Amino acid sequence: MSSAHTLAQDDLVRTHEEAAAQEREPLLVLEPLMAFLDEHGIGSGELEVAPIGDGHSNHTFLVTRGDRRFVVRRPPRGELPPSAHDVLREARVIGAVGPAGVRAPAVLAVGEDTSIIGKPFFVMDAVDGVVITDTVPAALDSPEQRRALSFELVDALVELHACDWQAAGLEGFGKPTGYTERQLKRFIGLWEINKTREIPEVERVGSWLKENLPESPTATIVHGDFRVGNVMYEDGAPARLNAILDWEMSTIGDPLADVGYLCMMWSEAGDPSGGLFDLNS
């Protein structure tokens, strides 16, 4: 696991009294968090905390406590739009798919009570490995292992889509019909709100998609952000994908959405720089 950022001075405090005395809300309040961990039998003693991930969305921390290593995940600071950064929803889907055979970390505990650290959060197992962005680990940097990395990525997605979401307890997690129509409506709406200039090509693509929506297959769990940068591989050969990460966009819908997104994010040697891969790496 790697970190792309460091802790700010006000990110961690020991008590709620310390939190109230500073201008910006902290990300973790250690003493009530330790009491919560004690209740769930997760390690003992003080916490060693390090941020992991790119920090663009929910905050994720690698925590060491005694002989236990685990991850704490919570939303960003401040007021959040309804349904945005819903870590409780994310914990629900991760906790459901892991026991069903999907490659996901084990959820250890869920903190719905915002009086603990100021926001909802959940705790999951720390998974050892590497997230591949712009370089491939030396042990995997051969034609044979790169090919295996790709097959592992596709196999993990196949396993996810094969998961019986109703048997896994995800009834009501999303609407199984009308997914593509809702997605198209949402993104056209976002374009209208956020555009800074007219781009006729966007309007033309939107109109074409409305007239040519494919018929969706049977609904499955949709990850919503499935790409190389959101999975973890073991860092030695043979190539093995051991966890799918960042489930906050997941829902029930059209599995081809994940396939299309994965293809859109794929990069090849010789591709021009500045594309979607660079924006998400």
Considering the chains and any ligands shown, give keywords for the structure.
16% strand; two-stranded parallel sheet; 8 helices; five-stranded antiparallel sheet; alpha+beta; Phosphorylase Kinase, domain 1; Aminoglycoside 3'-phosphotransferase, Chain: A, domain 2; 2 domains; globular; 281 residues
The percent of residues in helical segments reads 25-40%
Could you give the order of strands across the largest sheet? 3-4-5-7-6
Helix-strand pattern = EHEHEEEHEEHHHEEEEHH
Strand content: 15-25%
Question: How far is the first residue's CA from the last residue's CA?
Answer: 15 Å
Rg, please?
A: 20 Å
Quantity of strands, as a count = 11
Tell me the number of structural domains.
2
CATH homology superfamily name of the largest domain: Phosphorylase Kinase, domain 1
Could you give a short account of the major beta sheet?
A: 5 strands, antiparallel
Q: What number is the mean pLDDT?
A: 92
Oligomer: single chain
CATH class of the largest domain: Alpha Beta
Shape: globular
Structural class by sheet pairing and helices: alpha+beta
Distinct helical segment count: 8
The fold-level CATH name of the largest domain is Phosphorylase Kinase, domain 1
Low-confidence stretches: none
